[in-house]
Amino acid sequence: MDNSMVCLANATVCNGTSCLVPESNFNAILSAILSAVLTTLLALVMFSMGCNVELKKFLGHIKRPWGICIGFLCQFGIMPLTGFILSVAFDVIPIQAVVVLIMGCCPGGTASNILAYWVDGDMDLSVSMTTCSTLLALGMMPLCLLIYTKMWVDTGMIVIPYDNIGISLVALVVPVSVGMYVNHKWPRKAKIILKIGSITGALLIVLIAVVGGVLYQSAWIIHPKLWIIGTIFPIAGYSLGFVLAKIAGQSWHRCRTIALETGMQNTQLCSTIVQLSFTPEELNLIFTFPLIYSIFQIVAGALFLAAYVIYKKYFRKNSVEFPESRENEPVPQSSLQQVNKGFQPDEKQTPVDQKAP
């Protein structure tokens, strides 16, 4: 038999109908290039989001961290517990349960800041929550994983990439800080930058999901239970975050902000931890889960945004004000707020449309 009729031109070993073709590193090169491009674009988008953050209000959230504390409880309380409950409820194998819990223990993702802008959320709170959750993840991730994964695996096998967390923190703080400075010095120009960046950010979120799906299309074969968990998990995060924020007496626009910060996880960090902690054979069973979660958190976030837009148009059409737009309306205090006098909620502010005219 003529092997040239069977083997590819770049085959190195041919024996009958068997051919050995050199392993292609095209996907690896493409992934590295796209990662660098997307990281740069994301930094520019976060710079534009920073143009909508006022230093005085941002520091106000740090000094009076009621909203941040609620977000902390959601991020490192609700999300890991939800991941644990879903893993037990669906009776997944230990290694799959671990990757679900790793996702639940990750800090908030920067995409939440972009969506918070589009749903008229509190951008100062959104940025401060993302910054604090990323910083606190250095200690809270190992603690949460120790608590929740010990029934399945030895926690010591999970590698926490502290350098990646540090890079994520720098990539968030630096561009946002520059944007805050621009907003302080040139507020009109900042509004123009914000408008461009918000649209670019929305497109970037979709681009990241599409690129991830194309690069890892060969890994889409995964257990159906993980597909279901990946669908339910972000929706549960958004819903529980919103409910807890409302119970704590937060205004509607801050409830939306906290909900997005809760459900929107740093999936890139989860993927890095998974790759560092498991063997290639184990990765075949779990590697796609962070991508599944990433896609469905974007889909759920888009539905959240669509519901808000419809709600806003409906109320505007009927000349009904939003609860948060009623002037001089006192913030109802829950019993929880009255007990925690040291963490008083921020005073009710007359909301100003944060989008550029």
Can you put this structure into words, describing what you see?
This protein has 357 residues and is mainly alpha-helical. The protein is built from 14 helices and 2 strands. A two-stranded antiparallel ribbon has the order 1-2. A hairpin with a 2-residue loop joins strand 1 (13-15) and strand 2 (18-20). Helix 5 (111-118) packs across helix 6 and helix 9 packs antiparallel against helix 10 (252-263). It is globular and about 55 Å long. It starts with 12 loop residues before the first strand and ends in an 18-residue tail after the last helix.
Structural class: mainly alpha
> How many strand elements?
2
CA gyration radius, whole angstroms: 23 Å
User: Could you name the ranges where pLDDT drops below 50 across 5 or more consecutive residues?
Assistant: 1-5, 18-23, 319-344, 347-357
- Reading the helices and strands in chain order gives EEHHHHHHHHHHHHHH
User: Quick one: biggest sheet?
Assistant: 2 strands, antiparallel
* Share in β-strands: under 5%
Helical content stands at: 55-70%
The average pLDDT value, as a whole number, equals 76
Q: What is the overall silhouette?
A: globular
Distance between the termini: 72 Å
Strand order of the largest sheet: 1-2
Number of helices: 14
